[in-house]
Amino acid sequence: MIRWGLVLLLSGCAAFRSYDAELYTTLERASAGNVDEAIRLLDGNNSQPDKDALYYLELGMLQRLASRYDESQKAWTVAGARLQAAAPGLLGGVSELARGISSYVVNEKLRAYPGYDYEKVMLLTYMALNHLALGDYDSARVAIKQAHELEAQIAELRAQQYQEVEESARERGAKASFKELNGYPIETLDTPEVNALRNGYQSALSHYLAGFIYEALGEPSLAAPGYRQANELQPGRPLLEEALQGLDQRVAAPDDGTTDVLLIVGTGTAPALQSRQFLLPVAVGDKFILIANAFPVMTSTWYSPPPTQLVLEGRTLPVAPIASVDLMARRRLKDDMPGIMLRATIRSTASAMLQYQAQRASDREHTLAMALAAGVFTLGSALLASADDRTWRALPAEVSIARGRLPRGTGRVTLHTLEGERSAEVTLSGRYAVVDLRLLRHQLFVNAPKPRADR
Question: How many domains would you assign to the chain?
């Protein structure tokens, strides 16, 4: 009992931390163009010497907004290593649950941040974009290949995980559907758009980018599968379909002095997770009782629709949506809710039994130890009232692309948005270039390429 008390007392700060509130202020600074101040706020909210993977994910994106690509790569390399350590083999969570690790029984915020599948794929995709901004197509090729290898690994392991959760829930008599939580906003997860996704981690952006990278490297046989997969994930997009048309001819054609430019436009920020309480039926003895427990709810933040038009040096280029992090995050949460509910059932059952034992012992003997037990339960109940709201918020909510062949040199790109025009200068050189544009409220960040002369 005393050991549980120490666990609860020492874990209080981490469990009560509001990640949503912290990142709202941090991203607000970035959206005002003050990236250095945003990084200072991020550092201030993560003063512990041993920072988790999520800190490095956010830091790397902020550094990228400031075009500090080498620093961003270092931060993301650390993030990748910590994500791997937190969930080796991508299935650490299930096996730990089966062993009854205390962080799962007390509060999920106490575990090292494991990262979500779509975040891991997007991490490698953005690391590839950093390499492209530095003109290193060969390293970009390695990163994007790793992203697709990871997708295959996730597909195999998650199927195993979901089956294990289902079996464990059945054995424990736990509820497995979030629709059984009285009052849960079902409409945030159960929508035609969310259900239409094949899964919560595959991105047409990463596959189209793979096709573009392989094409730039003169490997059309590898570029074609990337473009084809992007079309399968986002069917009916003429811009994506055009990439396959004339691929071999484009690669074999002599340099005509123009640049084949891929413009990537990210808007808004990834949705937030907020902790809310709902009643969960839990078996105690031979009865079911309703216990208030906290569950994550997905909420949109700073959502901005993709630009209606993109103009580069007087030429209007069609814009096509290619990836929605907002929808991917919602699909991820929907797929993970059975596991979240199972862990909540384990925590609630432990809490109920702890209360029952403490009350019985207190009735028999009023001692300091029994008073401590009652206090432990009180604090434990408070900890149960906070769901894990950590998620990589600096990712864009929506990503679109435009593509065209344009004269080399410095030109002006203009985005026509519902809030007005946003413009910036970009320099194109080489046969291929990727320009990444990010809209944060009224601020337009440009990650301009530094291509090699032969690209």
Answer: 1
